[in-house]
Write a structure and sequence with these properties.
Blueprint: E1 4-10, H1 14-24, E2 29-35, E3 51-54, H2 66-80, E4 87-92, E5 95-97, H3 101-110, H4 123-133, H5 148-167, E6 187-189, H6 190-198, H7 202-205, H8 216-222, H9 236-239, E7 242-243, H10 259-263, E8 269-271, H11 279-291
Parallel strand pairs: 1-2, 1-4, 2-3, 7-8
Antiparallel strand pairs: 4-6, 5-8
Helix pairs in contact: 2-6
């Protein structure tokens, strides 16, 4: 049976990252971690059973820009070079599995061939995609800069150029693609991963988009022969099997009172968590899920 590859993008909260890695630590899993280039002191992560790969080629990831897409492609490429794998699971360093490794492997074996990618729907999603793709977005790298002057200046010029494009009715033409968006955390097959890596030119298409990481895989999948393999095209977070709450936050950070909600969920992973603010919920999930792990593969 093929292994699974877990691809993690992290930039902080390395205590939580170690817990995430420990929960995935299983001979059936290989783990790949990208630590943001802005981090000067790399964490020391430990595993007993998995093969752990800390990427040497690190990217300075900027919110909203194409660097996020390049980071995901780097992880897919690094893992694929060591594959094949049954599934590639893209996770944030602020995520946790809420099911055991036995459960995860059994679930994906039963649903082998399905692509677990979430798709957002509705007028808001359609308008959001249009605004992010069909207009050129400049000064994105500074929109969330730590420096207040840089952040405000970037926002000002970004908005001025966006308004000017709308006033002049300038739009980028994309005649051959039907764009879709959704959660950028997902689980995909070896075949679709290979398809993504063969179509990396999508980065050029989305070079001036905003938050293209929420668009590029959904768009590739929707316009590909793999479209019929989508697990659930109608419900975004069932589609990717992630428990994420955007109603109470951006997204909401799970805390102790949410324990029963998470443990009774049918989803496989949850985000996001913060060990400094809410360590108890993390420790409880770790203890509960660890109890359900089989000793056959550890």
């Amino acid at each position: 049976m093929l292994k699974h590859a877990f691809l993690i993008i992290a930039h902080s909260d390395f205590t939580l990252l170690q817990i995430l890695v420990s929960m995935l630590d299983d001979v059936r899993n290989d783990i790949y971690v990208h630590i943001d280039k802005k981090v000067h002191k790399l964490p020391i992560l430990q595993v007993k059973y998995s093969e752990l790969h800390i990427l040497n080629n690190r990217i300075d990831v900027k919110w909203g820009g194409v660097s996020q897409i390049k980071t995901e492609l780097l992880l897919f490429s690094e893992a694929a070079n060591n594959g094949p794998y049954m599934y590639y699971h893209l996770l944030s360093g602020a995520d946790l599995p809420i099911k055991s490794n036995d459960y995860l492997h059994d679930f994906f074996t039963k649903n082998q061939g399905k692509e677990f990618v979430g798709f957002a729907h509705g007028d808001f999603a359609d308008n959001d995609v249009f605004n992010k793709v069909y207009y050129k977005h400049y000064f994105i790298n500074g929109l969330r800069a730590d420096n207040l002057f840089l952040r405000q200046t970037s926002k000002l010029f970004h908005n001025i150029l966006l308004i000017l494009q709308k006033f002049l009715r300038y739009k980028i033409r994309h005649d051959n693609l039907e764009f879709r968006k959704g959660c950028n955390w997902l689980s995909i097959t070896e075949a679709f991963c290979s398809y993504i890596l063969k179509n990396q030119s999508i980065t050029k298409v989305l070079k001036h988009s905003l938050c293209g990481d929420e668009i590029f895989i959904q768009t590739l999948l929707w316009n590909s022969p793999f479209k019929d393999c989508i697990y659930n095209p109608d419900e975004e977070f069932i589609g990717c099997m992630r428990e994420i709450d955007w109603k109470r936050g951006s997204p909401y950070t799970w805390r102790t009172e949410d324990y029963d909600t998470l443990m009774s969920s049918t989803k496989l992973f949850a985000r996001k968590f913060d060990y400094e603010k809410y360590p108890e919920i993390i420790n409880k999930i770790y203890a509960e899920v660890s109890l359900k792990q089989s000793t056959l593969y550890t």
